[in-house]
Specification:
0% strand
Length: 280
Amino acid sequence: MTAQQQLLQILQHKIQHDQLLLPTLPDVALKVRQRSAEPDISLNEMADVIAQDPALAARMIRVANSAFMGRSIKVSTLNQAVTRIGLSQIRNIAIAMALEQIFVSQHKEVQRQLDALWQNSIEVASIAAACLTFYNSKVGRTGLNKDILTLMALVHNIGALPLISEAERQQDLLGDSRFLLFLASNLAIEVSVRILFAWGFSEPFHEVARTWQTLAPCNPGPDYTDFIRLANIARDGYSDKELQQRLLQHYINLQMVPEENFMLHPDIQTVYQDVRAIFS
């Protein structure tokens, strides 16, 4: 039995017997989620919660000043940033900004793979948000929200994280790092749903995690999952190239994107760069 086969068996066994160590949300993200659910919380109180994590506070000011928020006048304080972003968006954006804190490992090779996983999630989020912005500009109000989609895209494959981290405890079986990332992503669906349930994320997040790897459109649609599939298509992320191409054509017909090489479209590219910039 090869090292890759041994690692596959270990990971499958741990999934089946619920033995994986699942990540927890950073403390500040938990506090933001809990406090944002309070009907009478004020913007100043929310700013106080975020201020407990200086790195997150700095990022929220950057978000408030970014093209993502569509504003040109700069803010300089956290209270101003929270006021600009607003309570309706602060929860999703703050959690999205805090997520990077859990992609950590003591093992150099495992950390490299976690970095790749996080960067892939940012890329998917940036493309998906850009495509949704384009679609909304063409068809009007869709009921789909850019910051919700961004958070969904960041966690759509979150189950790969503990699978990669588990490999840190099997260092003699690590082998090819590309295989590790491939293996983790292919085993991640069930684990992703478990994590999102434990984190208290709503059913639409679970649905995205369950179905984004399926090359079939939502019905009715388009829905959040379709934009995450579209982002993965842009990254040539599906092994069945024929189905991938057919789904892309379906999305073009729905006006989700204008053409096959949609990432070259200036409107999509501009928003893509804007979203990527807030995670830099």
